[in-house]
Amino acid sequence: MECTSVRLSELSILLFRLKENCFGIDTQAIEGLLSMDELCDDSLRILKVHELLQTPDDHLKYREPKIVRIRETSPPTGIIVDQPEVLPLPVEVKTIQRLPTLVAPFVQKGAVWGACLVENQVVLLMDPHEAIRMKDALKAKEK
Predict the structure, then answer these.
(1) Number of CB atoms found within 10 A of residue 88's CB
(2) What is the pTM of this model?
(3) Less crowded by CB within 10 Å, the N or C end of the chain?
(4) 42 burial type by CB count under 10 A (0-12 exposed, 13-18 middle, 19+ buried)
């Protein structure tokens, strides 16, 4: 039997904003996108992206908040993000870079795993599962 390996050449990412920064989540991790008005599932745990990334919220206002429902989380989890793009954006995997050494100390290690340029703007790539896992571990440690 012949073994073949499939190489992923492109990611589809959902872009959103956090303050003046642009972030992206691989759409493979996303189950759906809800408006705040559509939230009717009491069992859905809601987290704010700035809390997951441990970003200070000094006067942070979400202009166009939406809930990104994350696949395969227990309990079911949604993340509030700001100004998400309606359509996912394809990004070539070869254009994704590790975080620059100067930036790495300022972001949640593991939760933000890389960066790419989209229309001359740096997009930080977030792993929502890792961010949630880290938040849960921190909460458990505090108990």
Answers:
(1) 18
(2) 0.83
(3) N
(4) exposed
